[in-house]
Amino acid sequence: MYKRSIIMLLAVALLITGVMVGCRGTGGESGSSAGNSGQSNTGNQTAEEVKLVLWGAADDQKMLREMAEAFKAEHSDRRISIDIRVCGEDVARDEALKDIDAAADVFAITNDQLGALVNAGAVYENTKYADEVRETRTESAVAAAMVGDKMYGYPSSSETYFLFYDKSKLSEEDVESMEGILAVKQDEGVTKMGFDFGDAYFSSAFFLTAGSKIYGENGQDPSSVTFNTENGIQAAKYIASLKAKGVEDMEGDVAGSRFAADKLAAFVSGNWKTEAYSEALGDNLGMAKLPTINIGGDDRDMVSFSGGKMYVVKSTTKHPLEAMALAAFLTNEENQLKRFRERNLLPNNQLLARNEEILEDDATEAQVEQFAHSIPTPSITQMSKYWEPVGAFTKDCFDGKIAEKDMKSRLDTLVKDITAQ
Asked: What parts of the chain have a pLDDT lower than 70?
């Protein structure tokens, strides 16, 4: 019964889901004889060496080198070298937009970055593998990889954030609600709850839970944000109340250190932190969907952003067929499973929906349950104006720098800033 419930939850989730400066080489060039996955140019170009540059996060470098070697081993009719460089999803868009010609042929981004890249003419349309993406990926992953009616991305993983907690300090019942977490008396020096209020990816959850809308009902209207309504004011008041109750503002790496030092009971983050927190807590690591919070007198399931990652091909690549083949290979079923095993990233390939290894993973279970209470992160260009102002507002609110009487006017200003054209 338990396994059947998880399978059903994952099926639901599949329907619903949908710091480095610059990008540098790592000596990760993979340049032995290799092929082009059957999508090569014809004629005298067959003997030409195809040189591709691939960007990826620092934590992905070993995995990407292995994938590149597998790509070459699978296709031995061409000479392809793949220069793998460090450039994470958090900065890839900005680096590419500085000079698209200097960007990697293939690079990873988060879903919300695609719109800005396409509008800038920086991404090559997925003309070879669009049908494969539509047939094998979740509905939300397909939607995220498109701008208008054209497919640009190669979806690689889905994600949302959830609760990590120390099972020696909190029970499963305690973590069902924020109020339950904060009601537990902890030893001196132990923080009851950590949260990154300066990161709008996480802190937007309070507004979403209160019922505020971000860029309209479906995230596509750049002129419509309802943070400055009564719902938004309730969210701001709730954030402002948390510091006195034992919540502390902190980033993910700090939380890992606190867990390891036995000084933190709970923290909100994503599956990219599972390995680090597991090392810090060992058998005491617990994972669950986000706790309910009481806003406006009602206990509500906390609503998170859901999204994911994808690879794209730059518009000015000299080898579009080979670059598309590499992007498709990096995100195929086999490599999505590899990415899950090595990086705890949840696949969005529907063929893996009933994989026993994935279903038995605690982080997957927590994400699957949270996906039911999430909305897709908007991918429109306007999101580039959203993150910094919202993160600054929620941090100021938590720090007590915004008086209750000033919340409406500050929210008015915030909405004006994040909807400005």
From this structure: 1-22, 24-47
CA angle 229/203/366 to nearest 5° reads 120
One-letter amino acid identity for 333?
E
Q: Where are the domains of the chain?
A: 2-158+307-376, 161-305+378-419
pLDDT digits (tens, 9 = 90+) for 114-165: 999 999 999 999 999 999 999 999 888 898 899 989 999 999 999 999 999 9
Architecture of the domain delimited by 161-305+378-419: 3-Layer(aba) Sandwich (3.40)
Let me know if the fold of 2-158+307-376 is the same as that of 161-305+378-419. yes
CB contact at 8 A, 155 and 335: no
Q: State the DSSP H helix or E strand holding residue 165, giving kind and residue range, or none if neither.
A: strand 154-166
Superfamily of domain 2-158+307-376: Periplasmic binding protein-like II (3.40.190.10)
Strands, E, within 301-410: which ranges?
304-313, 374-376
Q: Are 264 and 277 in contact (CB under 8 A)?
A: no
pLDDT per residue over 319-340, tens digit each?
Answer: 999 999 999 999 999 999 999 9
Q: For 30, which DSSP code?
A: E
What DSSP state is assigned to residue 184? S
